[in-house]
Amino acid sequence: MNRQPADVGMSVDEVDTPALLVDLDAFERNVEKMASFCSESGVRLRAHAKTHKSPDIAKFQIARGAVGICCQKVSEAEAMVDGGVNDVLVSNEVVGGRKIDRLAALAGRARIGVCVDDAGNIADLDRAAGSAGVKIEVLVEVDVGAGRCGVAPGEEAVVLALRVADSANLEFAGLQAYQGSAQHIRKFGARRNTIEQSIAKTRDTVDRIAAAGLRCETIAGAGTGTYRFEAGSGVYNELQCGSYIFMDADYGRIDLEHRSGNDEFGNALFVCTTVMSKARSGLAVCDAGLKAHSVDSGMPLVRGRTGLEYTGASDEHGQIKDPDDSLELGERLWLVPGHCDPTVNLHDWLVGIRNGVVEVLWPISARGMMF
Amino acid sequence: MNRQPADVGMSVDEVDTPALLVDLDAFERNVEKMASFCSESGVRLRAHAKTHKSPDIAKFQIARGAVGICCQKVSEAEAMVDGGVNDVLVSNEVVGGRKIDRLAALAGRARIGVCVDDAGNIADLDRAAGSAGVKIEVLVEVDVGAGRCGVAPGEEAVVLALRVADSANLEFAGLQAYQGSAQHIRKFGARRNTIEQSIAKTRDTVDRIAAAGLRCETIAGAGTGTYRFEAGSGVYNELQCGSYIFMDADYGRIDLEHRSGNDEFGNALFVCTTVMSKARSGLAVCDAGLKAHSVDSGMPLVRGRTGLEYTGASDEHGQIKDPDDSLELGERLWLVPGHCDPTVNLHDWLVGIRNGVVEVLWPISARGMMF
Question: What pTM was computed for the model?
Answer without folding.
Answer: 0.95
